[in-house]
Amino acid sequence: MKKDTIILGIETSCDETAVAIVKNGTTIISNVVASQIESHKRFGGVVPEIASRHHVEQMTVVLEEAFAQAELVWEDIDAIAVTEGPGLVGALLIGVNTAKALAFAKQKPLVGVHHIAGHIYANRLEKEFQFPLLALIVSGGHTELVLMQEHGSYEVIGETRDDAAGEAYDKVARMLRLPYPGGPQIDRLAVEGEANINFPRAWLEEGSYDFSFSGLKSSVINTIHNASQRGEELKNQDIAASFQASVVDVLVTKTLRAAKEYQVKQVIVAGGVAANSGLRNSLEEAFEETEIPLLIPPLKLCTDNAAMIAAAGTIAYEQGKRAGWDLNANPSLILE
């Protein structure tokens, strides 16, 4: 019988310090995340220096907890997978240097993982992939459509040309003076409001799978400002519902069109914005009318975690990919 592959994953690309242990790239043995939301909330966003310091403080605690929950020892670990990019360079450095130190001390192979590949492979912790597949990635800094013909193969067929969907959510939330993080707050308000404001949809040139949310963000800001100038009062709930309707319309329409054009066998959704109820519901409704299976991870696997890094790292490890001692944080790492 084939021996199980046990991978330790480390994720510190932004403001979550996370360590996980995953078996065969599909089964979570332990998955520990230390969030920093409370520390950054008063600043209305992530402060890189504070994030890095928290990673230093939390790393040893989170690592020990991951082993304790898994009831494993270092001899059980086959390799260490770590997020090398993209992300905040200071935050990434904590994870990368931790992984390198552990790999050296414990004589374990080291594997570098792209953060977005991790989000994609979070879905494999729920259900096995069917190729070719299409992945819609929607997170704070990324909005992309990625075509995969096989494990570890990524072709970006569409990406954001300016603001990612998550960035637009955060900026609109600040305009509405909502607490950080803004995305979930807008999603909550949208449920209570009506999409009665006609905000623009950026379809770009015919056939393009790229995205643009900067114009939408500006339209929301101008609408709020103009209403204030005229002494009119707009409901935050209606602004949120109208804004979300515009974002979701573009995401769902382009994903559905790409899935049909490339004749994929599966569509998966990945990234923090995949937790958005409006997006989840609209995608489920759209793909119910097709024969293409849609896979959206549970909420705990949408946001940053180390299980997804270990899952993606398992594929890289099994494909023979190894990082050297010169592995470094790469905040602009490209997926393809």
A few lines on this structure:
By secondary structure, the chain is α/β, with parallel strands linked by helices.
Written overview of the protein:
There is one protein chain. The protein has 336 residues and is an alpha/beta fold. The protein is built from eleven helices and ten strands. The model has no long low-confidence stretch (mean pLDDT 95).
**Average residue-wise pLDDT:** 95
- What is the straight-line distance between the termini? 34 Å
**Largest sheet descriptor:** 5 strands, mixed
- Rg on CA atoms, Å: 20 Å
Shape: globular
Instruction: Give a count of the beta strands, DSSP E runs of length 2 or more.
Output: 10
Topology:
Elements: E1 6-11, E2 16-23, E3 27-35, H1 37-41, H2 48-70, E4 79-85, H3 89-106, E5 110-114, H4 115-121, E6 133-138, E7 143-148, E8 155-159, H5 165-175, H6 182-192, H7 214-229, H8 236-261, E9 266-270, H9 277-288, E10 294-295, H10 299-302, H11 307-318
Parallel strand pairs: 1-4, 4-5, 6-9, 9-10
Antiparallel strand pairs: 1-2, 2-3, 6-7, 7-8
Helix pairs in contact: 2-3, 4-11, 5-6, 5-7, 6-8, 8-9
List keywords for this structure.
18% strand; 5-stranded mixed β-sheet; 336 residues; alpha/beta
